[in-house]
Amino acid sequence: MKTLTILVLAGAAALGGLTLASLRGEGVDPVVSGSIPAASSHSYTVSNIVAKTACLAERGQAISSRSARFVADKDCDSVWPGLASARTWTNNGDGTIVVTDAQGEAILTVVDGDGLAYEAVEPADAMVTMVSAD
User: Fold this and answer.
1) Extents of the domains making up the chain
2) Whose CA, among 8, 24, 27, 50, lies 20 to 30 Å from 85?
């Protein structure tokens, strides 16, 4: 019986030693983790169905928690007057997004449309859509 008790105690001590070694990190490779940064820009095809015109625009780097840089091609003025001078994309948090110029004047207000598209709601006569080009 003494032999069995000694074997049980020796086994428990060995198991305890292995557990203690693993808690101290001996023999364990360090784990290095990282993440892939989110895309810093998003491209759109901006279309005016009435004028039958289209151009490319890009929502870029974040400026604040609600705003990002916005750049539209020169030919975007044919899609909507003043759109080529757009500089900021601001999410109002109520489902609307306002595209403004460098002075902060609203050029277009858009809302989520069907699928990956945004549809202009202001000015009321703006028949403009922005469809993801990415």
Assistant:
1) 42-132
2) 50
Residue 110 carries which DSSP code? E
Helix (H) and strand (E) counts in the chain: 1, 8
pLDDT, tens digit, for every residue of 25-72? 556 666 766 655 555 678 999 999 999 999 999 999 999 999 999 999
Domain 42-132 class?
mainly beta
Which string of b and e fits 109-127 if b means at least 16 CB within 10 Å? bbeeeeeebbebbeeeebe
Q: How confident is the model at residue 14 (pLDDT cuts 50, 70, 90)?
A: low
Structure pTM? 0.68
How many Cα atoms within 13 Å fall on the side-chain side of residue 54? 9
Q: Which of 35, 108, 125, 38 is nearest to 70 (CA)?
A: 108
